Amino acid sequence: MYDTIVTLKKGEGRTIKAGGMWIYDNEIAGTEGDFQDGDIVTVLDFDGYFMGYGYINTKSKITVRLLSRKKGTVIDEAFFERRVRDAWNYRKETIDTSSCRLIFGEADFLPGMVIDKFSDVLVVESLALGIDRWKLVIVEALKKVLAEDGIVIRGVYERSDARVRQQEGMERHKGFIGEPFDTKVKIVENGVKYMVDVEDGQKTGFFLDQKNNRASIQRFCKDKKVLDCFTHTGSFALNAGIAGAKSVLGVDASQLAVDQATENAALNHLEDRVRFQCADVFELLPKLEAAGEQFDVVILDPPAFTKSRNSVKNATKGYREINLRGLKLVRDGGYLVTCSCSHFMEPELFAKTIREAAAGAHRRLRQVEFRTQACDHPILWAADQSYYLKFYIFQVCEER
Fold this sequence. Notes:
The protein is built from 10 helices and 20 strands. It is of the alpha/beta class and about 400 residues long. β14, α6 and β15 form a beta-alpha-beta unit. The radius of gyration is 23 Å and the shape is globular. About 40% of the residues are buried.
């Protein structure tokens, strides 16, 4: 079928044998046949057993990413349309699709491709050379499938500007796919209105993965004093505000984010109760503690403190410190909402870190809820990289 053969070393390929989709450079015994990076290849085990078809890139440590495990699969435009259709049908059955992640890489069996839908705009992030070749085919297939349900896409913007592209030997890139359009997009999520900047916002412009988690805090924020740390464009703060919080302070180190969050508060007519401050959270929390401030709800939604296994130790210190400081600001019987969006901060380690922070703050924790990312960011078992978000809600108690 595909003439280039990649053969695994004996005893290697444990990840894909367990259901994963990545083959690393040190797992490969050899490659036979002429190919260019980005081509589709056939992967065999050391004994010739068929493992699947995937695209190859010798510049990347992840040398092959599997597209299909079914022998005889033809990888063409029809193949990608089937993948896209499956992904859309899944979203229709599981989540509000007004704004959602339509394609989530490996978890949708399209490794290296991320596509978000914000109202009638698509934002594309291509992270691997092999899938980049099929980018326009995938976008056109998505537009076709959405149109069948009466959804007309008015514009597509590419945000392939992540550093990880350089590890694939690719340049970082952003810009319009097709005709230019207004890149400020208004969306509504959980009853909250936002202006999403798909051109200059972080990643694809808005973090959709916390959709259900943001809604989950609304039930205990009415008439409460709320602190939202690392607020970005204000999403948790605004969910607290729309739920009837007495006052909300959102904090972020980025003035651009604070300005966008302030605009979003005005968009929801919450500017009288929800305000934002530009500050370093690590510096501000001790000052609030020293001033005797107490909050009914403290929310900690930091960026990923670690993006590699090598920096997990330092990241753990950061998570422990921020949770300890946050816990000291929660009044007796109040709530701590805390999360980690780093894949490398494994669930057990994150739980241990929170436990240590609680001991350091002399607080007892009653777990209300544990959640992960929204279901439009599905977790494909065995494809570990698809599981990254850990989200806890605790009631915080003094010693009884």
